[in-house]
Write a structure and sequence with these properties.
- The protein has one domain: TIM Barrel (Alpha-Beta Barrel), CATH 3.20.20.150.
- It has 295 residues and is of the alpha/beta class.
């Protein structure tokens, strides 16, 4: 199995940037960060969060992308890319915002091309769509609203594919805080891939199936897994996800053995801090050593 990690999470990034209460963006060097993460045993894939280009000026430039590509040749790892999601809403009915969101995503896809990513993770719906799902609508009204927003997301994905000529299978739509049955309609319409975030499902953000049932239902299109734990708090908008493996309700052994049985070749990316990645790998080694080359 190919385990991987995000290059850097939000809070560790802030901690690097701020020194004595003063932000210094030059303290973020993505190439050095990737090199450090690649020293973790069993990590073979790095996910680059393209949001960093906007959050941390100078952190992702064409020159940095070129250096990251060279590092790939040196260390032998591969990349995935998480496309921008904050301030992005591909499902909005406001066409000014929707069009700008499409342009931002297309920009990131084109910038990341030299990395030859295994997958480009996309949130087809964003915070606005999630907010609507939390409203206490009737079942019929909820279906109408979700269908309406899905129609705009469908159009956005079509435009992204047309403008970038991306391999549809590499555009991995993630299960986020939105009913996944609607997202699956977009997947089927445009032939895209899926990024399965285990923590999002465990916390019921995208549906109420079990981890195994979701995987079996959608494995024909799953090209990447965001592997993190979660706890269902049963409180909309209050999620305990992105936990280290073993800290939540993930059926670790059953799920990983299911992937192993299927010969799943896609990356399993920890969206965790470096310490949590190491903790997660230790838990996996203890619970299901088969997937790490153990007995």
């Amino acid at each position: 199995m190919r385990f991987g990690s995000v290059a850097i999470e939000f809070l560790p990034a802030v901690q690097r940037i701020v020194a004595d209460g003063v932000p210094d963006f030059s303290r973020i060097n993505l190439v050095d960060i990737v090199r450090d993460v690649m020293e973790i045993e069993h990590i073979e894939v790095i996910e680059i969060t393209m949001e960093m280009e906007h959050m941390v000026p100078g952190s992702i430039t064409p020159e940095v992308i070129s250096q990251l590509a060279d590092l790939k040749d040196e260390l032998g790892h591969s990349y995935t890319v998480h496309l921008p999601l904050w301030s992005i809403e591909l499902a909005t009915f406001n066409d000014f915002v929707r069009s700008g969101s499409v342009e931002s995503v297309c920009h990131s896809i084109k910038m990341a091309e030299p990395l030859e990513p295994d997958a480009y993770v996309l949130h087809a719906t964003g915070a606005l769509a999630a907010e609507y799902t939390r409203n206490n609508y009737s079942e019929i009204m909820n279906l109408l609203v979700c269908g309406y927003m899905t129609s705009f997301a469908m159009k956005s994905v079509e435009e992204i594919m047309s403008k970038t000529e991306i391999d549809p299978r590499k555009l991995a739509l993630e299960n986020v805080e939105f009913p996944f049955d609607f997202t699956r309609d977009i997947v089927d319409e445009h032939g895209t891939g899926i990024c399965f975030d285990t923590g999002h499902l465990l916390t019921k953000q995208s549906g109420d199936e079990s981890i195994i049932d979701f995987y079996r239902k959608h494995r024909d299109r799953i090209v990447e897994v965001h592997l993190n734990d979660g706890i269902d708090t049963r409180t909309p908008g209050k999620y305990e996800d992105h936990l280290a493996i073993g800290k939540g309700e993930l059926p670790v052994r059953d799920f990983l053995l299911e992937l192993k049985k299927d010969g799943f070749k896609g990356p399993l990316i920890f969206e965790l801090t470096t310490e949590e990645v190491i903790e997660s790998l230790d838990e996996i080694r203890k619970v299901v050593p088969e997937v790490l080359g153990g007995l």
